[in-house]
Amino acid sequence: MLDRHDTVAKILAKVPASYAPLFMRTDEGVVLAQDWAAGFLAALRLRLEAWRPRLEAAETSRLLLPILVHIPAPDIEGHIAALPASARQHLAEAYHHIPTAVAALHGLHRSTAAERRLSRRH
């Protein structure tokens, strides 16, 4: 796990656009992003206070949507089933946007960290 963390950190630092999460797949090739999304949120919760200012920003909320859509919530399946087919298809393909969202979140994190370092110097 630490090796994967180091690999992801290097990718996001050097070439964020090349980041690709490791998703489980069914035998038929259907992507299962739920476990990845749950792991991402578990890691976020470990540093919730550090994330809090970013989570309250509209830009961050928008970036988290392709991840959050994969987190099961009570009774959500019924609401999803009631959506038009095109909306259900869009939700099913949200995992395609996760690599871009993670790279953008990393960029926000780096700029926020740099701002904090600058403010401490003054």
Number of helices: 7
Question: Major beta sheet, specifics?
Answer: 2 strands, antiparallel
Helix content: 55-70%
Number of strands: 2
Radius of gyration: 16 Å
What share of the residues does DSSP label as strand, in percent?
under 5%
Order of helices and strands: HEEHHHHHH
Major β-sheet strand ordering: 1-2
Low-confidence stretches: none
By secondary-structure content and strand pairing, the structural class works out as mainly alpha
Q: What is the number of independent domains?
A: 1
User: What is the overall silhouette?
Assistant: globular
The assembly state of the depicted protein chains is single chain
Structure described in brief:
The protein is mainly alpha-helical and 122 residues long. The chain has helices at residues 2-14, 34-46, 48-55, 58-68, 76-81, 85-92, 98-121; strands at residues 24-25, 31-32.
Characteristic key phrases:
122 residues; mainly alpha; two-stranded antiparallel ribbon; 2 strands
Structural notes for this entry:
With 122 residues, the chain is mainly alpha-helical. It has one domain. It is built from seven helices and two strands, in the order αββαααααα. Strands 1-2 form a two-stranded antiparallel ribbon. A hairpin with a 5-residue loop joins strand 1 and strand 2. Helix 4 packs antiparallel against helix 7. The radius of gyration is 16 Å and the shape is globular. The model has no long low-confidence stretch (mean pLDDT 86).
